[in-house]
Amino acid sequence: MKLDNYSTTIAGGSHWSFIARRGTQLKIEDIQGGANVGVLFYNPYLLHEKYNAPDTLKCQHTFKLSSGHCLYSDMGRIFASIIEDTFGWHESVCGNSHASHIRERWGARDYQCDSNNWKQNGYDAFLVELAKYGLDRKAMAANLNLFSEVRCDASGELRLARQAEAGDSLCLRFEMDTLVLLHTCPHPLNNASEYPHTPVKLQLSLAEPVREGDFCMNFREENKRGFQNNALYHLGS
Questions:
Q1: Bridge partners of 37?
Q2: What's the pTM value of the predicted model, to 2 decimals?
């Protein structure tokens, strides 16, 4: 059976992984509001090639990510482009929540005692998904946190300033085959009174072909070079 689209819902405090094929797109929608979606990318055929947050930010002269921005690998290629975004601010500097963050803010809880109501953290969620592909903590990289806006306060400390509202969404177009790891665990700066079990909806479908005047490709000069690197990588395929 051939699928042209697929959708699923990821519960809050959960994790998932899959291979997104070149020419497909992924829409991620916050269902209830307040979601955080941690994301990492890897080349499924060269697993040492992974998402590079510093290059993604510096080559596009930005601290936040939104429509028009491309998401780079550490080989100078583009995993995906952000072709739609209603939220307008996604960060890639704060990393993951860890077990210590969860324990200090919401108390200790584990799966053995609490089943699916346990409080997962982003770091361990990624480790579970990495293990499925023969990878471990050495393969971890600085991740994306979608739907989480961070700003500096008057003392210079980063604070979680805003999160998405119900119905906010982002759409990624994949420019190469990409192993996608994601989790719906809290942002590391989240200080909510209760652990946020916030679900998101995922919709995979075919993307429109990239054309000469493509917004993401022309958003920055570096993006043109990134697309050229992808074209060389795919030459003859």
A1: 146
A2: 0.95
Are the C-beta atoms of 234 and 176 separated by less than 8 Å?
yes
The pLDDT tens digits of the residues spanning 66-83 come to: 999 999 999 999 999 999
Nearest to 150 by CA among 105, 110, 188, 184: 188
Q: How many residues does the chain have?
A: 237
What sign does the CA torsion over 13, 88, 95, 174 have? positive
> 158-186 pLDDT, tens per residue?
999 999 999 999 999 999 999 999 999 99
The distance in angstroms from the start CA to the end CA of the chain is 24
Who's near 59: CB < 8 A, 6+ residues apart?
A: 72, 220, 222, 226
Tell me the C-alpha distance between 198 and 97, whole Å: 15
Cα distances from 158 to residues 9, 27, 123, 174, in angstroms, run 30, 28, 19, 30
H-helix segments, the chain: 53-58, 99-106, 111-114, 122-131, 221-234
DSSP track, 109-167? --HHHHGGGS---HHHHHHHHHHTTT--GGG--PPEEETEEEEE-TTS-EEEEEEPBTT
Q: Which amino acid is at 155?
A: S
What's the number of CA atoms in the CB half-sphere (13 Å) around residue 167? 0
Burial of 88 per CB tally in 10 Å (0-12, 13-18, 19+)? middle
